Amino acid sequence: MNVYLDHNATTHARACAREAALKAIDLSGNASSVHDAGRRAKAVLDRARAQVANLADVGSREVVFTSGGTEANNLALKAFGAMPLLVSAIEHPSVLNVRKDATIIPVGPDGCLNLDALEQLLTGNEVPMLVSVMAANNETGVIQPIEDVVSLARKHGAMVHSDAVQAAGKIGSAWQQADLVTLSGHKLGGIQGAGALIVRKHISLKAVMGGGGQELGMRPGTEALPAIAAFGAAANEAVNDDLAGVASWRDALEHEMLAAAPDAVVLGRESERLANTLCIAHPRIDAETMVMSFDLAGVAVSAGSACSSGKMAASHVAVAMGHDGLARNAVRLSLGWSTTQEDCLRAAAVWKDIVTGFEERHRAA
Ligand code: PLP
Questions:
Q1: Per-residue pLDDT reduced to its tens digit, 118-133
Q2: What would the pLDDT profile of 60-110 be if each residue is shown by its tens digit?
Q3: Interval between CA 184 and ligand 1 midpoint (Å)
Q4: How confident is the model at residue 152 (pLDDT cuts 50, 70, 90)?
Q5: How many whole angstroms from 92 Cα to the centroid of ligand 1?
Q6: Helix, strand, coil shares of the chain as percentages rounded to 5?
Q7: Which of 16, 112, 279, 307 is catalytic?
Q8: Index of the ligand 1 atom closest to the CA of residue 187
Q9: From the CB of residue 48, how many other CB atoms can be counted at a distance below 10 Å?
Q10: Between the CA of residue 143 and those of 49, 125, 138, 226, 252, what are the distances in Å?
Q11: What does the pLDDT read at residue 304?
């Protein structure tokens, strides 16, 4: 039996998303064309825009489609390149690596943003600043205090960008208060290739790429209609997801894993977390060994760290939380809309086999 517990990397396409994408492929019009085929493509685009706007609780004209979360993050940070930038230490690389001039806001051992540090950084600044803090962390699932970030920023005349790629469809509403919000279709049950930057109507944003006037002039280029249609359909379904099952299976999984390895550490355990995410580090088994052992047993999990190049780096999130010694050991199990209780029971059994096998080999050596 193959088990997929890497939904924070990408989640399964929902049936409605697949259907919407296939219909859009068959349309073959360009949404910018004035003829009938173009108008039909535009109708699909408009519908998806309204669906994504509904998820974000904004107006349709505040949704700017991009190729994904990475591009939306880049657009937000580069379009306001002249503003001093503050970013949290636990951001996704598509925020952390965009501007070399960014000042890092630390997080505490609980994985939550240090609000006092943010206030200090904001205080006394004469020019408006841009603050970028994610709504929930992709490795630990720790939910960030966006409401406080927004009110501190407002007090100091700063603007807020929030990467809500992992939070959208799982938690509302604080991230919806940010001035700029990043979303990604394939994390919601769409397909890869579409995301959005929500640009609230009081914000004036100039495109960072040259080209046509698509997306209200903020993001040129022909829209990826099939991926956008899938994004809209998935967003529409995700707003009604019931995460109660996922939450209880994640908690049971965590309980079983800690019972098998009592000295393992769950990162962010004491904080409010997304219901679907579990980041756990075994003190003596590195993440690479763990991910490979899970894989051999037919269970897909990932290293806590981003491993876009296929090789596992130390988790900058674990380091930011002060867990330097565990930064190469953290693995992430992330559940999704298609996860079943059996998947979680299987993952718990595999973890138990891995850790007991490891301890036995060590005792024998
Ligand atoms: N932001 C966060 C928090 C993410 O987890 C990811 C992907 O893992 C991204 C941004 C990038 O999104 P995309 O894969 O759509 O470029």
A1: 999 999 888 999 999 9
A2: 999 999 999 999 999 999 999 999 999 999 999 999 999 999 999 999 999
A3: 7
A4: very high
A5: 7
A6: 40, 15, 45
A7: 307
A8: 15
A9: 31
A10: 26, 27, 10, 31, 20
A11: 67
pLDDT, tens digit (0-9, with 9 covering 90-100), for 158-191: 999 999 999 999 998 899 999 999 999 999 999 9
Q: How confident is the model at residue 313 (pLDDT cuts 50, 70, 90)?
A: confident
Domains (ranges, CATH) in the chain?
3-11+241-364 (3.90.1150.10), 15-238 (3.40.640.10)
pLDDT for res 8: 97
- Could you tell me if 250 and 278 are in contact, meaning their C-beta atoms sit under 8 angstroms apart? yes
Question: Ligand 1: which residues within 6 Å by Cβ?
Answer: 68-70, 73, 92, 94, 134, 138, 163, 165-166, 184, 195
Distance from Cα 165 to the centre of ligand 1, integer Å = 6
pLDDT tens sequence across 316-352 = 999 999 999 999 999 999 999 999 999 999 999 999 9
Q: Is 279 a catalytic residue?
A: no
- Put simply, whether the predicted model's pTM sits higher than 0.90 gets the answer yes
What average pLDDT does this structure show over 242-253? 94
Alpha carbon nearest to ligand 1 atom 10, residue: 69
Q: Which of 142, 138, 93 is nearest to 113 (CA)?
A: 142
- Show Cβ contacts of residue 120 under 8 Å, excluding neighbours closer than 6 positions: none
CA–CA separation, 252 and 228 (whole Å):
35
Cα distance between residue 25 and residue 41, in whole Å:
10
The rounded distance, in Å, linking the Cα atoms of 340 and 245 is: 8
User: What are the backbone angles phi and psi of residue 130, rounded to the nearest 5°?
Assistant: -110, 130
How far does residue 175's CA lie from ligand 1's centre (Å)? 16
* Residue partners of 331: CB distance under 8 A and separation at least 6: 279, 280, 281, 287, 290, 291, 294, 301, 302, 303, 304
The tokens of 115 are what? 């609000």
